[in-house]
Design brief:
15 strands; 32% helix; Immunoglobulin-like; Aminopeptidase; eight-stranded mixed sheet; CARBOXYPEPT_ZN_1; alpha/beta; carboxypeptidase; protease; single chain; 443 residues; Peptidase_M14
Length: 443
């Protein structure tokens, strides 16, 4: 049979995209042109938008991919990759462009890619620091001024911190990402860096409450973070070997707790976890921060499988809705697994939805609407990442029909208050401080 006209057009789109994206570094104009071409060729599968501008006025482009790219769809989790936060760490920037190319050209052809895009809304930001990239005129394996934004600020030290007062001026790029996190229901994320070969996980900062005195700052979801980091390292060509980049630095199984590696204040992954309800890890993809362009194809091959397998982990655990007796969604209900309460309680979004990343096991899920009796449900979680859907567990508060007020977690060092209470050594004071923090959150 003769090919249909749309098939011919689709084939031409694939050829033109493949020809356009070669293995070299793409500067701002070329990067934007590629994203525009992808969106033009696959308008039903992609949505291109800018979440803000850099200090020098460059757009912070995000390409969204999925069956419903323009808007959130109930039950479909949101995932994001962010690269080039440090402008001179460049491998992630190019790897994400090739990931975009791989996803759109294999949708409808590769069953895994097709199911992934049908069940997940994927946001890709190839560069968070376009000014720094353009300012890096002499590529260097170790350091250049392009690491920072135009104002000379390190964007990965620029977020609110849960442990210390981070006395920095929030930069335009940081503010844009904070607003982006606030406006989407991100469940899982990774930010791509360079200068090492390791998957690093939260916390990057810490105090005695999180056990940092022992050299490890442990989150309530430490087991999940270890799993996420290993998912990437073991699907990478060599990260899992843990050999590091020199004889002084090794990472068993290619992973590390951020604090164990080095303490970092104002980091993006801790901010995502505490204030964004989003599990994020930091992926260091290359020993050389800005390697020669002729190595980019190898970097893409080394990371391709890991990038896909990591996205699939957004379907771990439990998801569901909290509604009233009329089926109306209840936003801002607290939903958490017992024994895993977060310093900033995880809440339902405007659609009454929640997503909790959990490893296989039996859990008690607790839903709380302020002013009403909590509901408890026991669930058995299996590994559903290969099925592209977390376990569904809904809650219906049949005796109420309310709209809870919008709430947010205060941008104060929440763990600082708990440490003070812990240092006092008085359980009653500890409870009082916890209640105080909760009252602030609920107001």
């Amino acid at each position: 049979a003769a090919p249909r006209s749309q098939d011919v057009v689709g084939a031409l789109c694939l050829v033109s995209l493949a020809a356009a994206l070669d293995f070299r570094y793409h500067h701002a104009e070329e990067l934007e042109a590629f994203l525009q071409e992808v969106h033009a060729a696959f308008p039903a599968l992609t949505h291109l938008h800018s979440i803000g501008r850099s200090v020098e006025g460059r757009d912070l482009w995000v390409l969204v991919l999925g069956r419903f790219p323009t808007h959130h769809k109930i039950g479909i989790p949101e995932f994001k990759y962010v690269a080039n936060m440090h402008g001179d760490e460049t491998v992630g920037r190019e790897v994400l462009l090739h990931l975009i190319d791989f996803l759109v050209t294999n949708y409808g052809r590769d069953p895994v890619v097709t199911r992934l895009l049908n069940s997940t809304r994927i946001h890709i930001m190839p560069t968070m620091n376009p000014d720094g990239f353009e300012a890096t005129e002499e590529p260097d394996c170790y350091y250049s001024h392009g690491r920072y934004n135009k104002n000379g600020e390190d964007l990965n030290r620029n977020f609110p911190d849960a442990f210390e007062n981070n006395n920095v001026t929030i930069q335009p790029e940081t503010r844009a990402v904070m607003n982006w996190i606030k406006n989407e229901t991100f469940v899982l994320s990774a930010n791509l860096h360079g200068g090492a070969l390791v998957a690093s996980y939260t916390f990057d900062n810490g105090n005695t409450v999180t056990g940092s005195s022992e050299g490890y700052s442990k989150s309530p979801d430490d087991d999940v973070f270890i799993h996420l980091a290993k998912t990437y390292s073991y699907n990478h060509a060599s990260m899992y070997k843990g050999t590091g980049c020199d004889n002084r630095q090794t990472f068993p199984e290619g992973i590390t707790n951020g604090y164990s590696w080095y303490q970092l204040e104002g980091g993006m992954q801790d901010y995502n976890y505490v204030w964004g309800q989003c599990f994020e890890i930091t992926l260091e993809l290359s020993c050389c921060k800005y390697p020669p362009a002729d190595q980019l194809e190898e970097f893409w091959r080394d990371n391709k499988v890991a990038l896909i397998e990591y996205i699939k982990q957004v379907h771990l655990g439990v998801k569901g809705q909290v509604t009233d007796k009329d089926g109306t969604p209840i936003p801002n209900a607290i939903v958490e697994a017992e024994g895993r309460s977060h310093i900033c309680p995880y809440r339902t979004n405007q659609y009454g939805e929640y997503f909790l990343l959990l490893l296989p096991g039996i859990y008690v899920i607790k839903a709380t609407v302020p002013g009403f009796k909590s509901m408890l449900k026991t669930v058995e979680v299996s590994n559903n990442s290969d099925n592209f859907s977390a376990l569904k567990c809904d809650f219906c508060f049949s005796e109420v029909s309310i709209k809870t007020r919008a709430s947010s977690c205060p941008k104060i060092p929440l763990y600082q208050e708990l440490e003070r209470a812990s240092a006092a050594g008085k359980p009653t004071l500890n409870i009082f401080v916890l209640m105080t923090v909760m009252l602030i959150i609920l107001k």
